[in-house]
Amino acid sequence: xxxxxxxxxxxxxxxxxxxxxxxxxxxxxxxxxxxxxxxxxxxxxxxxxxxxxxxxxxxxxxxxxxxxxxxxxxxxxxxxxxxxxxxxxxxxxxxxxxxxxxxxxxxxxxxxxxxxxxxxxxxxxxxxxxxxxxxxxxxxxxxxxxxx
Length: 148
Known about the structure:
Blueprint: E1 3-10, E2 15-18, H1 21-29, E3 33-36, E4 42-45, E5 53-59, E6 66-69, H2 72-80, E7 84-94, E8 103-111, E9 117-120, H3 123-128, E10 133-135, E11 141-144
Antiparallel strand pairs: 1-2, 1-3, 1-4, 5-6, 5-7, 7-11, 8-9, 8-10, 8-11
């Protein structure tokens, strides 16, 4: 299975995961910085393998917030509300499956003051979010971590 690194970037009002190194480079020139270094990233399969599902991405042009989901109908709903469909970010194991050894949870949190979403596979980062963040106890999906 070929794995791609998700670069974790922020501009202090938005958090974004991207497996596209060109997009990461562009974001760095637009005021984003690495939230976590590329070496401590989340990984996804670059192609669809049996048992994996697409991880879709949408962005809100008004706020710049990004949203990731394994449910296509969620993207359809967001697009009907003015969000932009950014396509498939990669392929991951659905959270309904048992988590294999060497994989970790992709968690979601929403900032209750500005509606920005944060997605992270770092348990430390997730636990360190302050009271302004509504942290879901459910994983979005499982993602492979080759350094685990």
